[in-house]
Write a structure and sequence with these properties.
single chain, about 375 residues, mainly alpha, two-stranded antiparallel ribbon, 13 helices
């Protein structure tokens, strides 16, 4: 028994799981970098560094997924054969097939994006047809990677499970990062006194945190996932301005001499911590009741911390390298609410505001309910 335990302790997470985790990291770093590039320089090329980081995700995911699929299909003694699925005559973990499909979509988006730029000029918006193909491919790789991590984690021995849990929650953190990255245009500090802002943030967020927390069975899983998002956002905020950049596209409304990052991270970590506390104390509750409690608490706590923090971010005290509210990209008009440090109110009347807040509450409940059921289903993943 001692020899078996020693063997388990010396075992390592397979390289192809690390490769998959590196793939999703590369895509998120490249995506954020690409947005900063457009905010700071404007003009880019197919071969720009952020694009290469993004497309490296598809290559790394392809290497990881291809290795697992081909060794399972053609390897006589493959350890994955008994826990694999069969698709088109090939065998492998389900997550590997999903990663492969996502990688194909990501790589296909590259020439599409290049064509779009050549045909219609620079698209500075996050939501455009080629970017949505790219996002679909990346979410496919992320979902496939989550499924891979799940299968290995759920099959792991007691000695190996903690290491798999940590990698699983890190990948979960990149899922949250990418979910919020694609919403950046709608969650700036000028929007944070609108009910619509809370609706947009809540789309997916409680579901991701709740599902991955329940699936991992780790005590502070939601807080760890939110911490990954917070650390990445702070690192970008503090590191990117250290590198020089200047606009190569007009009109230039603000003088830019360095890369312009996005804003200070949302305070998701606070409601994530409260979510963990509630999940720990309501394990025996019915999913619907549990979802209502989690959703209500998440929304209430998020409003309680983000609303006053948005006031602070509009103040001169936040216009420094720590909080970064003084960073404006070259294309921000001087009369815009963001440049004037003012809130832009999208609900025309108090009635419209409270109606949207009611929708936000329903969204929080629904997302938490989805997370409850998804998390329980994820606990059963073995292939």
């Amino acid at each position: 028994m001692a020899a078996i335990k020693d063997l388990e302790n010396r075992a390592r997470i397979p390289w192809y799981l690390w490769c998959a985790a590196l793939a999703v990291t590369s895509a998120y770093v490249g995506g954020y970098w690409d947005i900063a590039w457009h905010r700071s320089i404007g003009r880019d090329t197919f071969w720009s560094a952020p694009h290469m980081a993004i497309y490296a995700c598809g290559i790394l995911a392809g290497i990881s997924a291809g290795y697992m699929i081909f060794t399972t299909t053609f390897g006589k003694n493959s350890e994955h054969r008994d826990v694999s699925v069969r698709i088109w005559g090939l065998r492998g973990p389900l997550g590997a097939f999903i990663c492969a499909w996502g990688g194909v979509a990501m790589l296909a988006s590259a020439p599409f994006d290049d064509f779009w730029h050549n045909a219609y000029g620079l698209d500075v918006r996050i939501i455009s047809p080629p970017h949505m193909v790219l996002a679909a491919g990346f979410f496919g790789i992320e979902f496939g990677t989550v499924m891979l991590m799940l299968a290995f984690m759920n099959r792991a021995s007691a000695a190996l499970r903690p290491a798999h849990e940590r990698l699983f929650l890190y990948v979960g953190g990149t899922v949250l990062c990418e979910s919020l990255l694609i919403k950046l245009e709608h969650i700036s500090r000028s929007d944070q006194h609108n009910a619509r802002f809370y609706i947009i943030v809540l789309i997916g967020t409680p579901a991701i945190l709740t599902a991955l927390a329940i699936a991992s069975e780790r005590k502070w899983a939601s807080t760890i996932i939110a911490s990954v998002y917070t650390v990445f956002a702070l690192a970008f905020l503090w590191i990117m301005p250290l590198f020089p950049a200047e606009p190569k596209l007009g009109p230039v409304y603000n003088q830019v001499t360095h890369f312009i990052p996005w804003e200070f991270p949302l305070l998701i970590i606070v409601p994530a911590f409260v979510t963990d506390l509630i999940l720990q104390r309501t394990a025996s509750w019915r999913p619907l009741l549990r979802a209502v409690v989690v959703g209500t608490a998440f929304l209430a706590v998020f409003i309680a911390v983000q609303w006053p923090f948005a006031n602070f971010m509009m103040s001169p005290a936040a216009r420094n390298w720590i909080f970064g509210s003084g960073y404006l990209d070259f294309s921000t008009p001087p009369r815009s609410p963001l440049a004037r440090y003012e809130f832009f109110y999208r609900e025309p009347t108090p009635a419209a505001f409270w109606r949207n807040m009611a929708i936000a509450a329903l969204m929080a409940w629904f997302m938490a309910w989805i997370g409850m059921h998804a998390g329980r289903a994820m606990q059963k993943v073995r292939r």
